[in-house]
Amino acid sequence: MTRLQHIMYIDLSDVLRPPGIDFLLVLVAALGAILVSIQPVTDPLMASMTALEPTLIALAIFLALRGAAGVTWLVQSGVMHVYLSYPVSRASIALILIVSRVIIPSLLIMGIPLVVVMILLSPVFIGGLEKVAVTYLSYIYQAALYGSLFLLIALRVKSQATSGLLSVAVYFTYTALHVILWSIGRSIGNEFLEKMGYAMYFPNIIYLVYTGSDYDLKQLFLVPLLATFTIIAVIYYMVRRFETL
Amino acid sequence: MTLILEVKGVSKRFGSFKALDNVIFHVARGDIVGLLGPNGAGKSTLIKISLGLMRRDSGIVLLRGLDPFFDSDARKSVGVVFERPMLPESLAIKDFLSHAARIYGSSDSDVRSVLKQLGLEDHAWKTFGELSAGLKQRAAIAHALLSNPEFIIADEPTSNLDPVERLKLLRLMEELNRDRSITFLVSSHVIYEVSRISSILVVLNRGRVIARGSPQDLVMKAPIARVRSQSPEGLASILREEGYDVSVEGLNVMIRLKSYSDNVALLETLSRASRVGVAILSVDIVGAGLEELLRGEAA
Which of B54, B76, B89 minimises the CB distance to A244? Predict the structure, then answer.
């Protein structure tokens, strides 16, 4: 293991420590299983989306409260002092936080219900693994956008309660904004606003792609670009501005 | 003289509060530098800026010749013990130290060695949260030692320890300095502790360096006479009439002397006081305390 992997292991042991993630994993797995059992889904795309849609809400709350607000605990308790006192660049520490507090929990929490659903509905998924993988990735991008936004908030405010509350507020504001922009665009006939509002939720675009509906290339890149920009903002903030308490 | 830490004209504000004001000081290789100051003097801020954990508003910091805020290599071979020792709580101490050892390029035998050296062998499988305050401090010191340090920065390292543990830690620092040539920057507000082991004392107050020198120079420059008397108020008024700076603490009368040569005159005054019926129980001449240094008397 490299120096960075050791720091990541230490940080992951905090993020994934029970209780918290264990309950959540059981919950999202059960939820996914129930939802696909009560709905007549026969397509791998729909089956994946049915399982992943509610999971993303649970994941967003986990990322806000355990992932990002956990960073403020690191800062307040002094563990961040320890991380930053290692001979490792600030950019590397920022990347470690993004991977251990956003990417790995997202892969895990979104992955478990999908695996459960794939086992339950294995005949539906046979031959549709590519659709499942792309749908799964679209949710991961969406989660990465939320998680890195929450991380940026946490690094800036450095207060656990404020960071948690702000992150949840930002999540609901983003969700509302995507619906509002789409609705306004539709009602006033502004195609750009309508398409961008719709594209703010990446799985929507994947749905358009696989159902053969019309979509713009820029719609396909909106969330990945926003997520990349936010991740770069986290790294920039850590390198240039962040300081411990 | 090779410098391991240079701080040149560093200032830092938190809103309208000036935490550091044009601080200039350095730590030479092989020294034990004691950073003294009351709570809120700016010691921890200065340490965090010296490690690159905090930004400075102005000035230059060079740790091992590099700017620690931008260059992580500056922290190679630098061990740190923070004021409130905190290590991740999700792993057992031994596990965490094993990972820390790999981060610093040390081995598992180094981990076993520091666990033994710090008396943590019986607690190795506890998490940091399960340790007592003293053991937490020891674990933090073990963590600092794993960096194969040439320089250890310790922010109030004795603050959670009982007197026996404090003495042990001070001895350990002396040994590490003597046997492994490890340089130390140790902050404290207890002058007695740091002056025991330090080769240089730097006194910080309200964000400014107000004194720097060897413990002998600083502490002995402003001696205090502590006179125990059955009538301290009577003795104090006699001494005040003679022009001494006096305060009364219970049965003790504290007299601030300008130098050790004032002893003779003081003893003559005490002798006169004794002849007029003021009972003198004991007389001690001691070095300056932090309070005296902060008054600027040692500057």
Answer: B54
